[in-house]
Amino acid sequence: xxxxxxxxxxxxxxxxxxxxxxxxxxxxxxxxxxxxxxxxxxxxxxxxxxxxxxxxxxxxxxxxxxxxxxxxxxxxxxxxxxxx
Length: 84
Known about the structure:
- The chain is mainly alpha-helical.
- About 70% of the residues lie in helices and about 0% in strands.
């Protein structure tokens, strides 16, 4: 680093001070809002979990209810045809 040539008094040297501040500004531009990052990460994880759940439990309530009604109807039909 160029500003070390002035030893302990490098901040007093205008050229080295400008070089240091230029490099420092480059690092400052990399600061991010951690709360925003965490929220985004949580949203992404929740979205991934939702996709997995849609695959796992995938059918809509109407489909499940229709299948249940059909199963009950078939069960009653078989029960009515029984010859005790």
